[in-house]
Amino acid sequence: MSSLLAGRAKPVSAPTHETEVARLAGSALSKFIEGDLESVIVHLQKVHSGDEIELTIPAVAICVLIDVLANMAEGRPVSLVPIDSELSTQQAADMLNVSRPFFIKLLEQGKMPYRKVGEQRRVRFQDLLRYIAEYQKAAYKGLEELTAEAQGMGLYE
Fold this sequence. Notes:
- The protein has 5 helices and 5 strands; from the N terminus they run αββαβααββα.
- By secondary structure, the chain is of the alpha+beta class.
- It has a 3-stranded antiparallel sheet with strand order 3-5-4. A two-stranded antiparallel sheet has the order 1-2.
- The relative contact order is 0.12.
């Protein structure tokens, strides 16, 4: 259900009728591996055709799957993106939920490193994650200052 970024970061969502299936599967997997981070053997069977397969899945992949299922159960779209991927400006803007022109302004202001491939700008995913973390840190700091000021004025109890 999720897509690995190969050329486009295209989030996928579980159809409405499968969100409960995702919730139940994620919950069952979480309880099954609770505290035990070890590989698991999984037996899969297609519902309609009955085709079956058994395979071993690394524990870390099970943890990722649990996260994917939890997000899908909440109706949130999911994408798997390798940390060393490069994104187009549109992909990065979509991930920040901003317009492409706004994102390009961020790049031109030096907020994030990028490289050009011909006329196209490319941003490393890890640089985008770093920008998000710095932005959130600054936002929380501003909120703390605002709260402290409100408390000092006796407006916040």
